Amino acid sequence: MAELSQKFEVSQEVISRWKGEFLKLSSGVFDKKQSRDDGAPTEEVRSLRAKVGELTMERDFFVDACRRSGLKIK
Fold first, then answer.
1. Distance between CA 56 and CA 65 in Å, rounded?
2. Which residue range is the domain that position 59 belongs to?
3. Is residue 8 part of a domain?
4. pLDDT tens for the 74 residues of the chain, in order
């Protein structure tokens, strides 16, 4: 525990709490009742994908504008 704490700069108490939560909840990962078989993205996923698309378009616009104005972009 001390080695992990030093390596990842996280307190041992936090690591211990995470371990406890993992052990408590990990069996649910393999529970068929909780799995999504329909493959449809959730509303949150759809919202995040839309935001990524929006931000990608904005970035592309600004990169193009910078290049046209002579600024160097990495």
1. 14
2. 41-74
3. no
4. 889 888 888 899 999 999 999 998 888 777 766 555 567 788 999 999 999 999 999 999 999 999 999 998 77
Is residue 65 situated within a structural domain? yes
- The total number of structural domains in the chain stands at 1
- What is the identity of the amino acid at 34? Q
Enclosing H/E stretch for 5: helix 2-8
SS3 percent helix, strand, coil of the chain, rounded to 5, is: 75, 0, 25
How many whole angstroms separate alpha carbon 64 and alpha carbon 69? Answer: 9
Question: Amino acid identity, residue 15?
Answer: I
The answer to whether position 18 is within a domain reads no
Q: What is the pTM of this model?
A: 0.44
